[in-house]
Amino acid sequence: MTAPHIVRGMTGTHVYPYPTQAVILAGGQGSRLRPYTDDRPKPMVEIPGTGTPIIGHQLAWLAAEGVTDAVVSCGHLAEVLQEWLVSADLPLRVTTVIEQEPLGRGGGLKFAAASLLHPDRPWYATNGDIWTRFSLREMAAFHHERDAVATLALARPRIPWGAVETDEFGHVLDFIESPPSPYLINAGVYVFSAAFTELLPEHGDHERTTFPRLARERRLAGYPLPHGAYWRAIDTAKDLTEAAKELAGT
After folding, report:
1. Of the candidates 237, 233, 45, 217, which has an alpha carbon nearest to the alpha carbon of residue 148?
2. Which residue ranges does the record assign to the Nucleotidyl transferase domain (predicted)?
3. How many other C-beta atoms are found inside a 10 Å radius of the C-beta of residue 220?
4. More confident residue, 101 or 2
C-alpha cells in the first residue's frame, strides 16, 4: 500500500492519500505518425529498441507511482489496444471504455472518469502519447498543498531548431543547438480532485473551457517538472527516433 502524504500545519496534521487511480486518453488517430498508426492506435506504437508500446511504458510508470486501477479511453482501432491489454502482463487493473464518437479531450476525460473505481477520490490523467518519468506522488502533494481543483505538469521542451545569440548591436555571439524553450508548456499529465469531473464538458476541449475558468478562480496549479526529469511527446516518426536515441544513451 502506498504511504499517504502527511501535511503538518498550524491547525494540526492532515493525512492526504496519494491517488491510486488514473485515466489514459488513448483514442487519437495519430495521423502524423503514419504509417506506424495505419494498423494500430497511437499509444500502441512501440519505442524502437524496447519492444513495448507507449502505453506499456505509461502503465508501468503509473503502477510504480502507486496507481492500482486505470481507465483507458479508446477510439481509433480500439480493438487492437484492447487485444494487447488482454494478452499483456499488466502491473495494475485496467478498464477500457470506447468513445463511439469523438468527444474531444475534455469530453473524453469526463466519459472515462465515469468508470473510475472511486469517483469521490482524486485521480491522475495523462495523454496516451506521453513518455515520461517523474514523481507523481510529489506532483500530487504539490496539488494538495495548493488546494487546487486541477494541477497540470509543465515541461520546457527543447526547440527543434538552432538558436542564434546576438548582442545589442546585432553582432552574432554564438550558435546554440536545440536550446530549451523559454516557455513552459502543458506536459499532458494531470492531478485532478474528485470535484473536477463535474466541471468537464460533455464534448470539447477542457483546455479551452474548464482550465481557463479554474485559472480565473485561482484553482488551477502548474507543476514544473523537476530538473532532469525525462519527458517527450511522441507525435512524429522523428520523436520515435529521438526517444530511441535518448533511451540508448541512458
Report:
1. 217
2. 22-247
3. 19
4. 101
